[in-house]
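Bumping with the actual sequence this time:
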Amino acid sequence: MNVMRMAVGPGRLPAGAVTNSRRAPDAAFKSPTYASTGTPATTATVPPAQFDIGGGKLLPIPSDVAPLFTPYSLSEGRFQLSNRIVYAPLTRMRAVGTIPQPSAAMYYSQRAVPGGLIISEATNISAEGIGYMSTPGLYLPEQLEAWKPVVQAVKDRGAIFFCQLWHCGRASHPDLQPGGADPISSSTRPVTSPEYTVYTPSGPKPYTTPRAATKEDIRRLVGEYAQAAKNAVEVAGFDGVEVHGANGYLIDQFIKDSVNDRTDEYGGTIENRCRFALEVVEAVIAAVGADRVGIRITPFTTFLDALDSTPYATHVYLMEKLNNYGLSYVHMVEPRIKGNVELDQSPHSLEPFRRVYKGTFITAGGFKPDTGAAAVASGQGDLVAYGRTYLANPDFHKRLLLHAPLNQYDRDTFYSSGMEGYIDYPTLEELQK
């Protein structure tokens, strides 16, 4: 979930050359030059002359955005992508309770093109995982039934649809937890920065002290991720799942040493702090297959007070381990993104992780059409995830191909409860009527 650093966490509610942990200090870590490790769908280096935006309508591909419209073979050929543009996972808070609504079918299908990749909004793996109201789940039969027509609407447009698996961990509140329990985390360290508060049914409140997961809790949590993955793929019909290991939520709370102060095999060293993430990945792979599993990671974010003292060393180690699994992809957020805020600049880079990870690499965070095309052309990423700009332009591919102006996104409706800012962003065709 990408979130704004406002009172509710997700935004205003409307009127939201080292290989283990015994490394040189992170300050000495050099950013190597990377090379593309992608697996294009064909050996041709030139994209096709035309692109199918849907309904068999073909548009010529201008040279300046051509890298974004080069086909790509994902998951060793299981999914043939027509282009390198990914719709990023964006929380929208339009579920009723935890049930996806019929409007979600329109929302996602509006943004689907043949051979495109869409990643769903963050979706709770259990009732305990909830940290935000009006977010959907994957653990009740009625949730799964509600997801089915949403998934089918995207598939009817010829797109590939992955579901993001989410547990908020300490980024919750007893008012949102079953039985009023304390939220669970890697440790008892709470979110303390005053800029972060949590919205509950009775209004905004400060985050509370979480309880540290026991080993029995950890085994249960790993199983819940696996079951949610099975529910997503085998019941709801998603093509795959993305493990949410980013943005200060549960998995990130184990990875980042500002949160994790454990002294057992899940804390302390880099290997130990990454253990929970890797156990989740292994369990989800066992549930649905590695070629249906991706993971999202944010090495540099400090959102929700989750930061790491050695982000390069920690996440290079994690990339090295993820190389062993044959995942569909690794999805990383550029360091210039902090929650839902884009910084003017950052001294950090994803280059070391891109160099180490040998599979498909999705890069995300504040890309424009030209910078996204340059990222693919240079090998910075195999695929580029677009969020807010794509959200505001359901015909995003068409506008890039025609060099058409882009709608401006409206932050005030990112997390509101109505259809405004959800399914009513106009297409070019609608604007021309």
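The tokens above came from a reply further down the thread. The CA atoms of residues 285 and 293 lie 7 Å apart.
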